[in-house]
């Protein structure tokens, strides 16, 4: 569906249900699908099927009859589209001309079918052979200092591909292994190890069946992990209160119609999901959680025994300093910074202390802030106060983004050398791994802008759209001597390319991957550390495609000196050997990987914090004493009038930079993504009208002009002084330095902007 005129309606009253099924049928239709794709969807997230390429939410065992959602179906349809980019396509379109296309149109052109090289003389991509591509790229890589080369991974590739990718980068000589998690849950990966000794969440699906209370901060479940609505609905049926913190009134999570429950669908009944919906200011969660902790401490001091004293004494460290820091923050400041009243927070705290166990679920609304790491630590503090980590029904639940982003980090896609078993690599694969810290995503972008990075290789992703600072990044990107894209479809980063540029099209995970030993299985790790096999189902989009492992092996062989211990050929012949190699690198996590993965339900990677075994420096779970409630020091509260805190968010019709269409039905926006959500009172105060065109300009004193125009005003239920608009359209507004302190996650949920009426 192409972009049309903006059309605003009431939001769809409930997620799931009829709307979802209609959505699926429309998507299958527009991608030219036969009904067989509908049958294929029954294999989604099943043990003998394929793992969905959309989100990373856990896969229950046994699965639901249809363990897929509207957005998973869209992702499958998008990958298996009948549209193809044939060589004639590039013969008739120069790259400059394609730059005028929308992101939606570029990807909708279909699957890439053979390797291509950019030809400077004609400004076209021209077909090349795989051997020529590998030799050309390998030769170029041998001419660079490895420290100037970046190996990015978007979170979709399998554990098998990711393991080979990092091994290739390290054998080449660099730890420059940024991945999508650097823009996403890195705040989690930094906060949790200090607090509880693991970089990942502690909850499993089991916990949803035992829990007494679920708190959800800044995670748009109905859109970004819709299958979780099943667990939430089951909890609601048991009478479990679900408390949602979100500045935007996200209707998708308020009510849910279970598409698997035909009786309720016939009468289009929906179930209330959120028992309490609180709308803090963007970034107000830190103050809100402080308020909650303060209340618990006060009530306990008054004799109510709401803290788990035994747990605090036996299992934790730093409680006194933490409690003292909470007492220092006065209520007026907590209310001003959170945007919530003490009374509203008391109601939440009452619900929380009434439950024997509670889970803290969160997404980008916590991590993508200047104090994103502190926000995750604060949620951990709140849970620790009542011993809610390492007990059934309790725990912290970061909802990961890409379907295998957690797995990729587990198999050592990381710029932090201390997180990878380098000595094991050295012993097993007979090379000297680099020991210095590599570049993360923000540092890589800085390196590109400053001309210090010479080549970027991408295992998926669309960095010129997904990174901050587009205004400076795009021209610098075009000066890169080399860009190499392993990809399924055409995107903006293939048009904004380096001086030498290659497109290496790969199989989708849903396609059959045949190698010397037969069809291969790959594996991925979900948000609850469950590792599952994925079996390709469909014939490849083109006979010329290679799998991601085969492409990585081809590049490695053409780049690295021969080394019999790096058995690229053997690994590609049989991916079981890759899993054996992963297991040898880290037996505690991956022993017997291949066999355990094949059991129904796969296996769960061990997580000491779940057993209250704290692998922190103090050997205890650590409370964090908070120093400031200010979530965004770049935009002090006093800056308020005339300026807005802009949150960049996803619609219901996109997967990150992949734009499926222009329907954001849970928010009632149709036909356009060039919009900005504002509170009706702010619209009135500024003398604006709905549908009027405005420009947003970043408020920063660094001399860089950042502006996005042509955004139509849409009234929405969000706090005054806040605004929301779509990612990636608004990424030019995000300064590169505006990121979380400890994790470098871009602060995409609080960009200080000023609004200018247009026309
Ligand atoms: N269909 C679909 N599924 C996806 C994706 C997709 O694009 N489409 N992307 C995948 C990826 S990579 C990721 S990381 C996840 C992202 O999934 P989410 O974590 O849900 O990310 P967003 O949609 O960016 O924003 C989440 C919510 O945070 C709210 N929010 C913004 N600022 C704040 C704040 O300061 N406080 C609070 N409490 N809330 C705030 C927004 O209103 C929004 O509802 O989803 C994954 N799944
Ligand atoms: N302002 C703002 N910026 C953000 C965010 C935000 O909320 N606001 N969110 C951030 C987050 S959470 C993330 S995760 C990043 C995502 O950033 P990226 O990883 O850069 O982007 P994606 O859109 O996930 O990548 C999509 C591309 O991956 C390729 N692809 C798809 N499937 C496959 C496959 O199977 N194999 C291979 N090799 N390639 C494939 C296709 O070419 C597709 O165009 O963006 C971040 N940027
Ligand atoms: Mo993400």
Overview of this protein structure:
The protein is an alpha/beta fold and 759 residues long. The chain has four domains: 7-79, no CATH class; 84-182 and 404-510 and 543-587, Rossmann fold (3-Layer(aba) Sandwich); 186-399, Dimethylsulfoxide Reductase, domain 2 (3-Layer(aba) Sandwich), CATH 3.40.228.10; 643-757, Barwin-like endoglucanases (Beta Barrel), CATH 2.40.40.20. 36% of the residues lie in helices and 17% in strands. It has 33 helices and 34 strands. The strands form ten sheets. Strands 6-5-18-17-16-7 form a six-stranded mixed beta sheet. Strand 26 and strand 27 form a beta hairpin. Helix 1 (17-30) runs parallel beside helix 3, helix 9 packs parallel to helix 21 and helix 24 crosses helix 26 (470-478). The two termini are 28 Å apart. 58% of the residues are buried. The model has no long low-confidence stretch (mean pLDDT 94). Molybdenum atom binds at residues 180, 184, 401-402.
Compose a concise summary of this entry.
By secondary structure, the protein is α/β, with parallel strands linked by helices. The protein is built from 33 helices and 34 strands. The mean pLDDT is 94.
Please name the defining characteristics of this protein.
six-stranded mixed β-barrel, binds molybdenum atom, binds ligand MGD, Dimethylsulfoxide Reductase, domain 2, about 35% helix, Rossmann fold, alpha/beta, about 750 residues
**Percent of residues in β-strands:** 15-25%
The helix content, as a percent range, equals 25-40%
Read across the widest sheet, the strand sequence of neighbours is 6-5-18-17-16-7
- Largest sheet, strands/sense/barrel: 6 strands, mixed
| Radius of gyration of CA atoms, rounded to a whole number | 25 Å
Which CATH top level class of the largest domain fits? Alpha Beta
Number of helical stretches of at least 4 residues: 33
Number of domains: 4
Oligomer class: single chain
Structural class: alpha/beta
